[in-house]
């Protein structure tokens, strides 16, 4: 019976498993999607989602906690800058597992795990839409205001010539 056994050991010892999940998480953060087996993808999902939740609040303490898991400063920087900016308003479910079929060599079940907000196919081709910043103003409202004077300035230069 498997009473109280929540962790899939993936036929590895603890150190190997932690190192493998850390490397896979770094690759996922860097490339936004990776192909692996279904069992490893499910284990990686449980490993990465709490780290993404930590990255939503950018504090030194959270960075150190995430670094203790990932052990790669470039992945931590990418997680706290790009990934956290996209998932800021999402309450959870940052990754998606898509089953791909069986691997040719050993017939293992394969899957693609990806960060949800970085897929343009399932998001309908939408680009990054930031609804509001912390102060309550939207970035889209600020963008046209800055572009309009630049357009007027170019018209004035053409008129003077």
Keywords:
single chain; 161 residues; alpha+beta; three-stranded antiparallel sheet
What is the compact description of this entry?
This protein has 161 residues and is α+β, with helices and mostly antiparallel strands.
Structure report:
The chain is of the alpha+beta class and 161 residues long. 52% of the residues lie in helices and 12% in strands. It is built from 5 helices and 3 strands; from the N terminus they run αβαααββα. A 3-stranded antiparallel beta sheet has the order 1-3-2. The radius of gyration is 21 Å and the shape is globular.
Percent of residues in helical segments?
40-55%
End-to-end gap: 85 Å
- Succession of helices and strands: HEHHHEEH
> Which percent band covers the strand fraction?
5-15%
**How are strands sequenced across the largest beta sheet?**
1-3-2
Q: Kindly state the mean pLDDT as a whole number?
A: 85
Largest sheet: 3 strands, antiparallel
The poorly predicted ranges are: none
Structural class label: alpha+beta
Total strands: 3
How would you classify the quaternary structure? single chain
Rounded radius of gyration (Å): 21 Å
